[in-house]
Amino acid sequence: MSAAPAVPQWRRIERTLRERIHGLAPGDPLPSDTALCEEFGVSRMTARNAMQRLADEGLIVRVPGRGSFVAELPAHRRADRLMTFSREMERQGRAPTSQVLAREIRPSTADEAAALGIVPSEPVVVVRRVRCADGKPIAVETARLLRRTAAAVMGADLEHGSLHEALARGGHHLRRGTATIGAEAATHEDARLLGIRRGDPLLVERRVISDARGRRLEATESRYPADRYALDVLFEVEDATPAEVSEP
Fold first, then answer.
1. If exposure means fewest CB atoms within 10 Å of the residue's CB, which of 9, 14, 66, 184 is most exposed?
2. How many CB atoms lie within 10 A of CB 78?
3. pLDDT digits (tens, 9 = 90+) for 77-124
4. pLDDT, tens only, 127-175
5. What 8-state DSSP symbol labels residue 148?
6. Which SS3 state, helix, strand or coil, does residue 127 take?
7. Which helix or strand (DSSP H or E) is residue 9 part of?
8. What are the residue ranges spanned by the domains of the chain?
9. Residue 232's beta-bridge partner residues?
10. pTM of the predicted model as reported, rounded to 2 decimal places
């Protein structure tokens, strides 16, 4: 049996700080990069990498010349950033789990093939789960992945673990993607799995994610009860100054 891969040093620091943050209040100070270097025996670059990841998630605020502080936790995920469901729930202090409904390799449908850029009927890995937080169902999620991810996905613990972390351990690193978000009425199956009524409003997110080389790897649909999930949007206002009209 092969040994489990070593945890990167920045990840070890990140996890430790994440646990500490849960016991702190917004505005509480965090260790400096220098203090982290001394505590964990790492380089300043490694310490900064861990802190920056927490800042990117909105968990901490880094103030030049003053230090790093616990941030006011956002209630929702930012629409311009995808973090794993497990990490998102942990950020909110909730315990993430999943109920695996299906995990199989089967021929792709025409729609699945189009989303992933493959030939129809080419095999795909399909993972269907109910995603829960503190035991309460939050989403019905169906992920379709390229056949080459099977070794990483089929044996992974997807009830307590993250699909994206399983992919990363298998050498499949997701980098960027596109998503469409809309509203739909809950089907009979949605109602049964999520404990809601048929016809209740759902927030439905469909996304396609590519790897570091720009190859589409995953196409996923997530179906959230409208009263249990939302997305925060950061935007810029388009200049409303009237355009100058040239004289004829």
1. 66
2. 15
3. 666 667 778 777 776 777 889 999 999 999 999 999 999 999 999 999
4. 999 999 889 999 999 999 999 999 999 999 999 989 999 999 999 999 8
5. G
6. strand
7. helix 9-22
8. 9-70, 77-232
9. 78
10. 0.69
Tokens of 85: 């469901």
Find tokens 């945890």 and name the residue.
7
Instruction: Rounding to the nearest 10 degrees, give the CA dihedral for residues 186, 192, 195, 200.
Output: 20
9-70 and 77-232 have identical folds: no
State residue 86's pLDDT score: 79
- The secondary structure element, H or E, covering residue 193 is helix 188-194
**CA-to-CA dists, residue 181 to 203, 221, 247, angstroms:** 7, 10, 44
Q: Decide if 85 contacts 77 (C-beta within 8 A).
A: no
**Cα separation of 21 and 19, whole Å?**
5
Q: Strands 216-225 and 201-211: what pairing?
A: antiparallel
For 77-232, CATH number out of 3.40.1410.10, 3.40.50.720, 3.40.50.11090, 3.40.1650.10 equals 3.40.1410.10
> Measured between alpha carbons, how far is residue 10 from residues 33, 36, 106 in Å?
12, 10, 38
> Tens digits of per-residue pLDDT, 56-78?
777 888 998 899 998 876 556 66
First to last CA, the chain: 80
CATH number of 9-70: 1.10.10.10
